[in-house]
Write a structure and sequence with these properties.
CATH architecture of the largest domain: 2-Layer Sandwich
Structural class: alpha+beta
CATH superfamily of the largest domain: DNA ligase/mRNA capping enzyme
CATH class of the largest domain: Alpha Beta
Oligomer: single chain
Largest sheet: 7 strands, antiparallel
Radius of gyration: 30 Å
Helix content: 25-40%
Strand content: 15-25%
Distance between the termini: 57 Å
Number of helices: 24
Number of strands: 26
Number of domains: 6
Length: 660
């Protein structure tokens, strides 16, 4: 069962990656034949094992919107765990018994109930006695099985968590209202308790089982290890654990400690339970704690250092966070010199002042934090002006917490995505400027408008001294920036991020005006709508963009920094003039689809990403496939041709028939 389940998880991941690449990125990472074969193999395994994972492509979980989350009382109260930071106390607690040592995941505890092989209920821990019913949301957790082989009533507990990588990615997308999510646990709690489970599905919530409460007809006296192994065979991911006794307990704690920095999910310690279920239950519970489990909290390494500065970091939400900069110290094996203070309330509570002696530590052995302030000479005064744009700041109260905001809607920090687009491959194509680096440069005040990117040399010393940079990284960046100075009107127009003006439309516009930038920038609404593929809405947004004084100044500054290369003019016959093609699948006569796309455009055609009523022809070497593009083309009566047929048109100089 274990090997089959691993295979199923791998298949689900592979199929979902292929589907995403095909439907969202217009790429094929496997043939339709291979996809169908793998899909059928997964479907057959699901039938044999009785397990269907929530992310399986063989099912589609519907999204639902609830008015509220109903409350429900737990059959057994969910008590908190007693805790210790002393490994010797753990050994004494174990008292010669065998135990299981596992991560204490820092998320939201959930009780799941299955019956007849299907998930019927999910309830949060809540107060410990009463929780919230989140069944619809649990159905869209990334790794939860919606169907299992066991048909009796099953009740189990586990932790819903969001990984650190997903947290960072998701946190970048949060709106101003959601700035309260300061860590993966808060984001997970907010995601699981959503009224719209579409949002939950987008948050990549994982579930790890850690306790079997009830399994109808199953031997309840078995060991906890056997219970977790049985749950794993039912399709659940279980919390990673180690078997321990009085001999290997200390070494096991040390091993978990070494893994803590690399473990992908938030954990605030370890949990030790007795392996013998009956023995653990015979011990009963106190008013606060069960006696069959105990939590181990890492003894934080706390180091004294001196506060050198408070930096203010503006985010795309408008929030400006204080960051403590202190003399570098070695903490949990790495050198650290900075720690987020999160908000004004925390900074004022710590009374942080420049030169203060402070104590720092790593929360959960990962995230640098200020533990306390020994001197307490502050707090440092919050800036009245944004460190990025210089406009006035506002202090607001959010849920009783004092936070600092930039009031300027045009602050560069709020437009990081537009700068990231500006430097992207098909735009100005500046290698080495990732979104994270762009954000750092904006926060440092190096970039206030796009043209500043070409003046990055003015900040050479500061960039070299930045964390993650150095002489070599700076030289590579400088070389990429200077290379990007020699560009063309298509790249510049596309890089500006004008609404609805994608790469294909930028090419069409530049071609219409013979790549003359003055004419491109000055195009009227009427002229634009005469270009094939440019509609009224696009033309209006285009004209309004270049009428905006701020945009005009930004473009003028850019023109001072770049040089336009000579563009090769299209020559010869233009048999595909005003025709729109879509390309799908692999190609044989060309290096890749981009090369085929260039040929079509050189002959007057246009290449779109998806099949619509305005498409004239779909190129697909597997013209009989059941892909979505083929199906759509057939529905709309659009010809589907092979690459061979396309090459014949080119070689014979034919004007395509039947697709006009």
């Amino acid at each position: 069962m274990d090997d089959r389940l691993k295979s199923m998880k791998k298949m689900v991941s592979t199929l979902n990656r292929a589907a995403k690449a095909y439907y969202l990125d217009d790429k094929e990472i496997m043939s339709n034949l291979e996809y169908d074969r793998l899909y059928d193999e997964l479907s057959e395994l699901e039938k044999k094992t009785g397990i269907v994972l929530s992310s399986s492509p063989t099912i589609r979980v519907g999204y639902e919107l609830s008015d509220s989350l109903p409350k429900e009382r737990h059959e057994k109260p969910m008590l908190s765990l007693d805790k210790t930071k002393d490994p010797a106390a753990l050994a004494e607690w174990l008292d010669g018994q065998k135990g299981l040592l596992s991560w204490k995941l820092d998320g939201l505890t959930i009780v799941l109930t299955y019956n007849g092989g299907g998930l019927i209920k999910a309830v949060t821990r809540g107060s410990g006695e009463v929780g919230e019913v989140v069944t619809n949301n649990a159905r869209v957790f990334v790794n939860i099985p919606l169907k299992i082989p066991f048909s009796g009533e099953l009740v189990l507990r586990g932790e819903a968590v969001i990984g650190y990588e997903d947290f960072k990615e998701l946190n970048d997308k949060l709106t101003e209202i959601e700035v309260k999510y300061k860590n993966p646990r808060n984001l997970c709690s907010g995601s699981v308790r959503q009224l719209n489970n579409r949002i939950t599905a987008e948050r990549n919530v994982h579930f790890f089982a850690f306790g079997l409460i009830k399994a109808e007809g199953l031997d309840s006296e078995r060991s906890r290890k056997e219970q977790l192994e049985w749950l794993s065979k039912q399709g659940f991911d279980v919390v990673p654990f180690r078997e321990v006794d009085s001999i290997n307990l200390s070494d096991s704690i040390e091993l978990f400690g070494k893994e803590a920095g690399n473990y992908g999910f938030p954990s605030d310690g370890l949990v030790l339970t007795y392996d013998d279920v009956q023995y653990g239950e015979s011990l009963g519970a106190t008013a606060k704690f069960p006696r069959d489990a105990i939590a181990f909290k890492w003894r934080d390494e706390v180091i004294e250092t001196k506060l050198l500065d408070i930096e203010w970091s503006a985010s795309r939400t408008g929030l400006i966070n204080p960051i403590a900069v202190f003399e570098p110290v070695l903490l949990e094996g790495t050198v650290v010199s900075r720690a987020s203070v999160h908000n004004l309330s925390i900074m004022e509570g710590l009374r942080l002042g420049i030169g203060d002696e402070i104590r720092v530590y790593k929360a959960n052995m990962i995230i640098p934090q200020v533990a306390e302030n020994i001197t307490g000479s502050g707090p440092v005064r919050a800036p009245e002006n944004c460190p990025v744009c210089g406009e006035q700041t506002d202090i607001k109260q959010e849920s009783g917490v004092k936070v600092l905001f930039c009031a300027n809607a045009e602050c560069p920090a709020k437009h990081i995505k537009s700068y990231t687009h500006f430097v992207s491959r098909d735009a100005m194509g500046i290698d080495g400027l990732s979104e994270a680096t762009v954000e750092k440069f904006i926060n440092k005040g190096f970039i206030k408008e796009p043209a500043d990117i070409f003046q990055i040399g003015r900040h050479k010393t500061a960039i070299i001294e930045m964390e993650g940079f150095g002489e070599k990284s700076y030289r590579n960046l400088e070389e990429a920036v200077n290379k990007a100075r020699n560009t063309d009107p298509v790249r510049l127009l596309y890089s500006l991020g004008i609404p609805n003006i994608g790469l294909a439309n930028a090419k069409a516009i530049c071609k219409h005006f013979n790549n003359q930038w003055h004419a491109i920038q000055s195009a009227s609404f009427e002229e634009l709508t005469r270009i094939y593929g440019i509609g009224d809405v696009m033309a209006e947004a285009y004209v309004n963009f270049f009428r905006n004084e701020k945009n005009k100044r930004a473009v003028e500054d850019l023109l001072e920094e770049i040089n336009f290369k000579d563009m090769e003019q299209a020559s010869g016959e233009q048999p595909f003039l005003n025709l729109t093609f879509v390309i799908t699948g692999s190609v044989e006569h060309y290096k890749n689809r981009n090369e085929l796309k260039s040929v079509i455009e050189s002959k007057g055609g246009r290449v779109a990403d998806s099949v619509t009523a305005r498409t004239h022809c779909l190129i697909n070497n597997d013209s009989l496939s059941n892909s979505s593009k083929n199906k759509k083309a057939k529905e709309l009566g659009i010809p589907v041709i092979t690459e061979d047929r396309f090459v014949q048109w080119l070689e014979n100089g034919e004007k395509p028939e039947g697709i006009m």
